[in-house]
């Protein structure tokens, strides 16, 4: 879903640049996906699909394509708020830019067409944004207090893509330098080649807006662990900018080749780690046959990174063993009381307050307080 969304989006932008799809494989595997944040991962997989649907609607102006936009908007919103916020924001900039450029090309005053497109966008998104803001304010202690943070080092090291071990850090830091340098080179090419307004300029405005959000918004607004998620969207938007900029194909092909090499390096690091992690998870899963069906289980897991038989961490950059014991419940009908999602008010399955294990086991005096 992730890759094909970008395939259709690139094809809609410029069919001659489909070779750039090779870069997107670097972004499919990211820290939240390995952490098990599947709702957020779904919103990122739909990110390009929403942009594509808006661009198709701009071209066709058909009601059928508008329905597709509404479907994608709802799917992303109810997958994760961060994915929805930024995909809708970019969509607004891109369709506004296309209307403005249409007016420049036709030597016509495009205010009427622009106003109509913004109105359509507003009718779809403003109710959804209102719902999102209400949700964010009412869930937890979320306050919008703007202050500069220290996310720069995380951004330049691509920490949102270090999935399992510290061995991934070096190739990813090199990749971050190459991607941002490519963005700067693309901007220089764009200034040299075209003096007039270009659609890539509107994507650049979007990136600037995202960076402001990334560096100034609180970590828990509109969701917890905001930085981890927004960083991925920033890199996706830089990738989109490079697609839009009319720079020599040779440069883009060199960039694609380099990214493919980095992808192979990362795969060679991740697969051995995943094999070790799989073996460790299998050991936990083998406990299933000694647990009676319909039992209530508290799994005492204090090595969230996982340990091998020598006591070495298996995933020193990710707590992927935090809920690994719940694999026991795949084939065995048992109740795991470390289901933290059921303790969150916005999940559909909730603990009854009287029996909520987090009420009894998570206070400061208890061994399970973490």
Task: Catalogue the unreliable spans.
Answer: none
Which percent band covers the strand fraction? Answer: under 5%
Largest sheet: 2 strands, parallel
Cα distance spanning the termini: 35 Å
Percent of residues in helices comes to: 55-70%
Strand order of the largest sheet: 1-2
Radius of gyration: 23 Å
| Number of separate helices | 14
Number of strands: 2
What is the 3D shape? globular
The helix-and-strand class reads mainly alpha
Q: How would you state the average pLDDT, rounded?
A: 89
What order do the helices and strands follow?
Answer: HHHHHHHHHHHHHEEH
In words, what does this structure look like?
The chain has 370 residues and is mainly alpha-helical. Helix content is 60%, strand content 1%. It is built from 14 helices and 2 strands, in the order αααααααααααααββα. A two-stranded parallel ribbon has the order 1-2. The longest helix has 37 residues.
Topology overview:
Layout: H1 2-13, H2 25-28, H3 31-35, H4 38-45, H5 47-60, H6 63-77, H7 81-106, H8 111-138, H9 152-156, H10 169-193, H11 199-216, H12 226-244, H13 249-285, E1 296-297, E2 335-336, H14 357-361
Parallel strand pairs: 1-2
């Amino acid at each position: 879903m992730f890759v094909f969304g970008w395939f259709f989006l690139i094809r809609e932008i410029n069919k001659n640049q489909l070779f750039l799809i090779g870069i997107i494989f670097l972004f499919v595997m990211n820290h939240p996906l390995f952490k098990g944040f599947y709702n957020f991962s779904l919103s990122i997989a739909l990110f390009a699909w929403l942009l594509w649907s808006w661009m198709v609607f701009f071209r066709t102006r058909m009601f059928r394509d508008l329905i597709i936009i509404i479907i994608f908007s709802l799917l992303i919103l109810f997958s994760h708020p961060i994915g929805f916020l930024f995909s809708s924001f970019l969509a607004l900039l891109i369709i506004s830019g296309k209307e403005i450029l249409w007016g420049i090309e036709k030597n016509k005053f495009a205010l009427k067409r622009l106003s109509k497109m913004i109105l359509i966008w507003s009718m779809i998104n403003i109710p959804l944004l209102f719902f999102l803001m209400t949700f964010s304010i009412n869930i937890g202690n979320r306050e919008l207090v703007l202050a500069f943070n220290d996310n720069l080092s995380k951004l330049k090291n691509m920490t949102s893509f270090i999935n399992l071990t510290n061995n991934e850090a070096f190739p990813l830091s090199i990749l971050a330098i190459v991607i941002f340098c490519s963005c700067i080179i693309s901007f220089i090419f764009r200034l040299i080649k075209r003096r007039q307004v270009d659609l890539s300029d509107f994507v650049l405005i979007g990136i600037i807006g995202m960076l402001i959000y990334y560096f100034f918004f609180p970590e828990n607004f509109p969701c917890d662990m905001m930085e981890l998620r927004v960083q991925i969207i920033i890199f996706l938007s830089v990738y989109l900018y490079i697609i839009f900029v009319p720079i020599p194909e040779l440069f883009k092909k060199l960039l694609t080749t380099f990214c493919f090499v980095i992808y192979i390096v990362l795969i060679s690091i991740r697969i051995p780690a995943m094999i070790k992690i799989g073996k460790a998870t299998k050991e936990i899963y083998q406990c299933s046959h000694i647990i009676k069906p319909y039992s209530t289980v508290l799994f005492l897991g204090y090595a969230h990174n996982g340990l091998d038989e020598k006591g070495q961490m298996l995933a020193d950059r990710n707590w992927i063993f935090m809920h690994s014991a719940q694999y026991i419940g795949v084939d065995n009908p048992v109740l795991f009381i470390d289901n933290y999602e059921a303790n969150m008010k916005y999940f559909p399955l909730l603990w009854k307050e009287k029996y909520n294990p987090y009420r009894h086991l998570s206070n400061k005096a208890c061994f399970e307080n973490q």
